Amino acid sequence: MYREEEIDIKKLVRMVNNMKLKYKLIFFYIIVVMIPVLIAGVILTNYFREGALNRAIDQATNNVEKIKSQLYSKLRVPTDISNLLYFDEDLERLVNTHYPSILELTKAYLNYTDLKEYVLRYREISNIRFFIDNPTLVDDMSIAPVTPEIRTRNWYTQAMRNNQIYWMYIHDKDPYINSPKGTINKLSLIRQVPYPEYSKSGILMVQVNQDELNQMLHQEPFETIIIDEQGYIVSAKNPQLVGSTVDAFDIGINVQSQSKGVFMTQVKDKDSYVMIDEMIPELSVSKLKIISVFETKSILSDANKVSQLGLFIVIGVLLVALVLVYTISLLTSNRLLRLSRQLNQVALGNLNVVSHIDGTDEIGQLSRQFNYMVASINQLITQVIESNEKNSTLEIAQREIKLKMMASQIHPHFLFNALESIRMNAHLRGEREIANIVRLLGKLMRKNLEVGRERAPIKEEIEMIRSYLEIQKFRYEDRLEYEIAFDPAAAEVMIPPLIIQPLVENSVVHGLENKEGTVHVSIAVTLTENQEIQVIVMDDGIGMTEDRLAAIMEVITKAEEEEQGRIGLRNVQQRLTLYYGAEHGLNISSREGEGTRITFSIPKDSGLKA
């Protein structure tokens, strides 16, 4: 049975593959699109009411999200202003100064205009107030002293508890100064501004422009309000609701206990959906809730009409789409046929074919890729021919180089044996000093030929340095004095070979250069308390100027190798930084006429024991 079904599927696939492209598109459009859409349209008509409600809920959700975003943006301005005033030193001096006379106070008020400028500059705020315990201040509708009545207010006591930002609606029946204008009927930012230097704190109040808040909700399709944590309506589509509590809105659920969600309830005795969301302004501990309400009946009445209209529209669209699919399939198949003919020409060996199918769709891109492919094939054929010619020439040159290298090879043991013969002859003739120098030279050359090793013990490096210095001592006699201070604890630590010798050679060569008298060279290798091997090479030669030293440091630290550069120092610098990092590179100090000092350090644990 399973075998028969598999055969039937293969026959169906073969039949579909044998169909022309335009018929495939029309066939699959009818089977996959038209018939399912018609069936789904009939079925979904019965459920369109739920769809309409869901769309209304989605719209309400999107509107609430949009309001949240706008509210974040509008409340960010008062928050940013409060942050600026929090650190405003001019404001700090103004409110904490005790003024001897009203004249001095008036001058101070006139000189400080930041609060009024903020109000004029930003439309999001309507006023800025600052309260502080300073009896020499006078209320100018911006800065005011704290009175006993103000101390009893909820917003004042709450703000004095900590340095957090609070957002609350201060009702218009909550006067805080003895003035006809001393009332607030707006959402306000409240925060404490501490002044530790004066052992007191002030209260900053930034009042939000009510028109800006109401304007956000003016064009909302559903009834929408914003409330604070106390239940006061701070903004509403109907501005008359501002200032009242959420209970006056007559919602059938306790919105204060709900944080977020969609609820079906009765609002003013009508079946409605209530969308509740909340937001916490930036840097604030207070929450604001956004509530959107829409009536069920108005949504469903339109749903029935829209469902019928939608069915007719779907049928019309499907018929139009059928015509468009046929047209597009015909155009597509013709373009593909042209491209197929051009591919056949390439298959027959004609590499001069150029495709001219217009359009920027996939077929147009395929045509351009076809042209690129043909051009690439021609280019590759040319490159293969050139490469074969170059390989032949290179192979001949390599053979010639190999013959020359073989002819020029000299086994190093021949040189060592020759030096040993010279040393024995000098020893037999009593020239022990010359014999010793030849022995040291052979030893030094043997070590130099062994630098292919990745690491070598420090003691071998010191031994090679001692041999080098003895040879130079033989050459320069009394003009060169040296001393080596070597910590036995560092003897077996492995380091890169020839890492110290070039520094010693640099001190000897450049130290004796252009200086009369004796030059002292000292080498110190110690193990520090930080478990690092510290190497110091010093000489009392002619030294160098600061400009010369800077130029040398620039040369040895460059990534690219330069001709006639400091090859030895640069080689040591590059190997130190590669092995141990830039912090373990060379440190060179020198003074003209006094000498030069080169130091570096490497971690003991990075080197293996010998």
From TrEMBL:
Query: Is-annotated flag, keyword Phosphoprotein?
Result: yes
> Could you tell me the keywords of this UniProt record?
Cell membrane, Kinase, Membrane, Phosphoprotein, Transferase, Transmembrane, Transmembrane helix
State the membrane topology.
Answer: Multi-pass membrane protein
Which Pfam families does the protein's record reference?
A: HAMP, HATPase_c, His_kinase
Under CDD domains, the record lists: HAMP (cd06225)
Q: Give the top-level enzyme category.
A: transferase
Q: Which InterPro entries match?
A: Bact_2-comp_sensor_kinase (IPR050640), HAMP_dom (IPR003660), HATPase_C_sf (IPR036890), HATPase_dom (IPR003594), Sig_transdc_His_kin_internal (IPR010559)
> What SUPFAM superfamilies does UniProt report for this protein, alphabetically?
ATPase domain of HSP90 chaperone/DNA topoisomerase II/histidine kinase, HAMP domain-like
* GO MF entries: protein histidine kinase activity
List localization entries: Cell membrane
The main location class comes to membrane
List residues traversing the bilayer.
21-44, 309-331
Q: Source organism's superkingdom?
A: Bacteria
Question: Any idea where the HAMP domain is?
Answer: 330-382
Question: Which SMART domains does the entry link to?
Answer: HAMP, HATPase_c
* Name of the protein in its database record: Two-component system sensor histidine kinase YesM
